[in-house]
């Protein structure tokens, strides 16, 4: 199972917490967290400010640093990176992505990788991993993307983290849907705000 997330996406953060905090401790999962990129996803999309125009708040910066960390320490560190970033940016609502990034690198004792945020050295890797996540679901979706037993889908898009049995029931349902080759989409309009509590 592969969960593709961009650290700046609140829906990716909620899916991350659902799977890692609520489901993984109670299910035997071979779960890998991978980085997709909202910067890549939104390139050329109408209504989106180009990431290059966002300076220190560019969505390129966190995923570049995440890939640099993974190069240095292995894939498992992506979990730590996403958790540290999401806790600050989403749960604590700390603003200024650059500030968040610096604090995360300090927590992970990886300040030496700060320069990776503004280097395009890993952009081919960012694009390749992003494409691996998106290819099976198409480009008209967002983040998160979940791959289960060779089937991929966008979401689930959550407004809050399901807890306990609700989290497990939702996971079991998602896996069952994913196993049906003709399953494409479930959707309804968002009627409530996001809760990170």
UniProtKB/TrEMBL annotation:
It comes from the Bacteria. This is DSBA-like thioredoxin domain-containing protein.
